[in-house]
């Protein structure tokens, strides 16, 4: 293990990539703590202290790594990009032109990505306007009476704030793309990862302050959860594929038997992110439409009591069902059995006992449907674990509690992915990897 | 002074957004987000991309300086509005 670390750092190519990634992450964290112009840092801190423990902005704060409550330049974090990606993904099912683009391969994908980027900026403008409006009205921090934005009477200051936050979002997008391009791993998910990981020390200290026995228990529970998540993430069914021997020229090709790996959890953590973002949307709508003085109408009370409150049964079951649905949905749009079967047929491969072509596609569909069921249930259960605990103990923990639920899923998923990528780089040079 | 910095900030912000949008998106959207498999970036960055990178970095530096400058001016007693 340690030897693998040393060889990873000894390879100049890989070392450069790792250091580059670390550098970008440092820039991102610095920006996340830098207060936006016109925001009084002292007052914001005071207000955020008051808010500790309450969990109004749990999810969005989770994705931005606490930057939201700092009202920093990167306050919106990666959230607009995620929302934009989700919208574009969903639209590929609805709009024929998008579907066509998606099928076009590389070029079409590039175009879709470009649309996502434009939409991100649009959403960033919307969300930053909403955020600034909330902060000005004093709704952002609940009962806090400190003046968060001292110069809020001049409309110019507010415009500067909105534009800066929008630019901050585009910078984050760029940073993420830089990591994907020149560094190790997927930039966007790594940035989310850092946001979550940055909160661990503070949350751990919070628990330690309450009682050390709870702290020990939480650590043990977290280790168990992490181990089981890794176990399921790595699980896959290997469908044997036999390739026929072919002669091309005087070379012999094929004749090998390999396997087609089908992961139990093919979709990764995307369903969790989809579901939680979708659950968050009604709340956002309510917050944006509601004036400061108007009475809460039935819709907002409904949203507040059933969807936002994390210990309510409605919230938990809706969340769970959404995750299961999105797992199937996402597997459905990323893995195409017909295409796989065609590809196999083209290269002279077949699954023993099943005819190539349509029967193979049907078989793959069948296996995939069966294997995704435990995968989706597992995702749902892990994601709602903290909510169930919340219901039992009735206090403090919530979704951005970094030792359970969404946070662990994201961290383990991204971590595994990144390590695998480093490993494949190492393998190119015949070094021993991290994973056995 | 603060007004100047604010105007500078607006200009650099707008420029920054435009420059970032000019980059070719390498993220690959959500399909590659969170373990969508490995895709190698086939083409290296072209000269255009390299210059764009430099320009973006420069504008980003101006942007950060403007933000920090405004922050300091507000913090200093008497200098802020």
TrEMBL record, chain B:
<keyword id="KW-0472">Membrane</keyword>
<keyword id="KW-0653">Protein transport</keyword>
<comment type="function">
    <text>Involved in protein export. Participates in an early event of protein translocation.</text>
</comment>
<protein>
    <recommendedName>
        <fullName>Protein-export membrane protein SecG</fullName>
    </recommendedName>
</protein>
<comment type="similarity">
    <text>Belongs to the SecG family.</text>
</comment>
<keyword id="KW-0813">Transport</keyword>
<keyword id="KW-1133">Transmembrane helix</keyword>
<keyword id="KW-0811">Translocation</keyword>
<dbReference type="InterPro" id="IPR004692">
    <property type="entry name" value="SecG"/>
</dbReference>
<dbReference type="Pfam" id="PF03840">
    <property type="entry name" value="SecG"/>
</dbReference>
<feature type="transmembrane region" description="Helical">
    <location>
        <begin position="55"/>
        <end position="74"/>
    </location>
</feature>
<keyword id="KW-0812">Transmembrane</keyword>
<keyword id="KW-1003">Cell membrane</keyword>
